[in-house]
Amino acid sequence: MRTTSQPRSIQVHASDNVAIVVNEGGLPAGTRLDSGLVLRDGIPEAHKVALTMIPAGAPVIRYGVTIGYARTEIPIGSWVHEGLLALPEAPALDELPTQEGVRTQSAPLEGFTFEGYVNDDGTVGTKNILGISTTVQCVSATVEYAVKRIKAELLPKYPNVHDVIAIAHLYGCGVAIDAPGSEIPIRTLRNLSLNPNLGGAPMVVSLGCEKLQPAQMLPSSTLPILSSQPYVVRLQDDAHRSFGDMVQAIMHMAEQRLVQLNARRRQVRPASDLVVGLQCGGSDAFSGVTANPAVGYAADLLVRAGATVMFSEVTEVRDAIHLLTARAATPQVAKDLIREMAWYDRYLERGSVDRSANPTPGNKSGGLANIVEKALGSIAKAGTSSISGVFGPGERINCKGLVFAATPASDFVCGTLQLAASMNMHVFTTGRGTPYGLAMAPVIKVSSRTALAERWSDLIDIDAGTIATGEASIPQVGEAIFHYILDVASGRKKTCADYWGLHNEFALFNPAPIT
Amino acid sequence: MRTTSQPRSIQVHASDNVAIVVNEGGLPAGTRLDSGLVLRDGIPEAHKVALTMIPAGAPVIRYGVTIGYARTEIPIGSWVHEGLLALPEAPALDELPTQEGVRTQSAPLEGFTFEGYVNDDGTVGTKNILGISTTVQCVSATVEYAVKRIKAELLPKYPNVHDVIAIAHLYGCGVAIDAPGSEIPIRTLRNLSLNPNLGGAPMVVSLGCEKLQPAQMLPSSTLPILSSQPYVVRLQDDAHRSFGDMVQAIMHMAEQRLVQLNARRRQVRPASDLVVGLQCGGSDAFSGVTANPAVGYAADLLVRAGATVMFSEVTEVRDAIHLLTARAATPQVAKDLIREMAWYDRYLERGSVDRSANPTPGNKSGGLANIVEKALGSIAKAGTSSISGVFGPGERINCKGLVFAATPASDFVCGTLQLAASMNMHVFTTGRGTPYGLAMAPVIKVSSRTALAERWSDLIDIDAGTIATGEASIPQVGEAIFHYILDVASGRKKTCADYWGLHNEFALFNPAPIT
Fold first, then answer.
1. Which of A141, A409, A505 sits opposite B515 (nearest CB)?
2. How confident is the model over B454-496, as pLDDT tens digits?
3. B491 and B161 Cβ atoms separated by less than 8 Å
4. Which residues, in sequence order, are CB contacts of B136 under 8 Å at separation 6+?
């Protein structure tokens, strides 16, 4: 039963001196909450109310953590908006708890499986896709042209293959190929080709004169299969006597791959073969109390089942880094976390960017006062497991458990880097709403508010807003997400993004200049 | 008659101590040239032969300019390859000739016209396209979905409209919207919406919570028409109760635009309404002696006819900047040129990039030893006119004559910025060959070698390789390019790229970090 007509608020942690107003449309001044507190101001939906008088300079506490300091005295019942909060300093990277030692692991969860496509390299796909990699943007229009024809003329003959996608991008030439940071886009492109959902037999279209040569992007030593069969079509090769020839060459190699992919069948695999990437976008103040904790609950279940769960978004965890280093499984993991934060601090500094640039205006009007509050909500997605590994942007993950893959927070840059990290399932939480989708892996979208899930019923897969209205608990929604992941990974259920074919372009992270 | 079977070489300037071997496949050691010179080494096609003994440390001269210094003594008849040349210092920006005063203009060329679409703001389109702008990548998959339906369901009803394109990009959120340099991608997006080929009545699809808001990207004050009619569809608006609703809203606004665009007809306009962008990509050593000088000749004709001709690619002109400042129409233009070079020097320095990163390996194997030689060939495209204006990346051009629009050399970043600068016709020269194309403006591709034009007969529009074989002169090919531009601009001829629909994605230049 829905209870949104009653005044309703959520206090996350017992020590918090603010709570979130849950009611759609907010609550007017004078409203009396269950606790007896009377609102001094009108408070918008998802925004914070002061549960006590907060003296000037005193900490404002949410999630049990200081999210800012009161610029002036804040009377009880006031709207604690962005303008009232002074931003705390980011935790200094040289004073973090890094020597906590090995944490105890939760009890393993046995018997959960899904049906996936087993690759030669031991990875498992949740889809069976032909991916056509490109070394440089010069070839992308040609590859798009070929892909259109492959989809129309060849794909119908190979019904076990789900899709054909061009891994198009803006890199490869007009860039300083040896500049500091260039290793990031290059390894990203290499590892995108190796994503488990692409079947383990990549093909590459190259121009010929570009800076990023196929041998640098995807050397044949990467996979045994590549040394035994051709995998590069080079448009400038003399063999191609016309544009039509080039397209034919791409289609010919593509059809060889389609034959291989089409012979594959789903097999029952343990849940431990999942590599689930977590992300949020268009967040609001509910994200941190509904969708993200529910996903965090599912993440804990996945980790207990032996899977790999990846969280990311450096700029959104930076201000909560002290809570993450304390969860490092080993001292090295803590050091690696700090290394990635420090790299990003320098990267932003070089561009004269200050961290108040995040959150977005939409985040703020959604009730997130600053990056600290956003960070605390963001890391709720990562559940409570210890962190077993840290990977740089575009690196491929090679361990199980909860891992941190360092990426920007930009939704599509993060998604692209998570795909390179070998993600085969994606869970995306949103409060404001975004029609996000990726071609290479299924994206389950979880809404933080029921109003959004109802309005966008054909875009949101799971509604975690029921946690705010009291209809469901965090464990209930978390369990539902866990089982939904297994269903989608097995092809038994289809995400909204896949239903509509909403697949955003890849967005490479290139920290180096273009030339 | 073809004469490629004879040994053939080209010396560009009387003071040059190297010449270029023209024969396909190069020439073997021992070959005697017309001049009597005997080759000491085998010399690949488009590579340089020493016309005299060049002592160690002496300048190697091409185009009458020092392109490097001999690392060791180079005997007469030797192959002057990259390894023999030490790179000269880039011209210091504080010692350039900047006070040359107003140059004499060439005689005006009267009576040349084309048939274009006149816009309310006085610009003229060579195509009649519906462009759908986006504020942020979050909406791009939705817009692509809508564009597919618009093309299938609406466009056939409006036969005078040539195309519908989504101006999709990776910017708008996950970026520091106020960082130094952020003005570049923002004004680029604004000015892309205002490209003459889009009919002067833009529409914008926004998510709602993104950092780059429609009012910042394209304020209604930009065009009178925008204050009198709605031009933004915002996906997060409460009015949209589903994904289907969003798509309907985009299609509804698109159809209103299609009705307006469809009522337009081509009108006879003076050639002075053309804004022709010049670019080269996949260059070889022939580019600077065939295709680029021929385009330069056409550029001079266009300037004399009153048109705007734009050249770009900072990193490819940087090493010839002293030749450009000397051609500045006013001292201010020279200062502006230096300003743009200095900005780029700092940008590359911040990323620890040295200028030897350009040329590409393909350029080098095509015979271009270093960036100096490439720059000299590159600026040949700009002809001999004085330079009347300089524009920063993404700025809109507001003057006639030969102008420099500062951009990176990356083909698609440059093309995107030239479109933002208001380019309505594009000429692209290539030696190695690239299947380049843009959706927003016709691209005429000119090859530097006949072998490429023959092999890629369905991709190359004009062969300038006939200059090397002696079949045609630079003025002859230049005139042909000039007339081809007028024909394509009028819709009488179609480029190869448009025939195949080869349209690369937009590539924004964002010098700031992503977050």
1. A409
2. 999 999 999 999 999 889 999 999 999 999 999 999 999 999 9
3. no
4. B171, B172, B173, B206, B207, B210, B211, B212
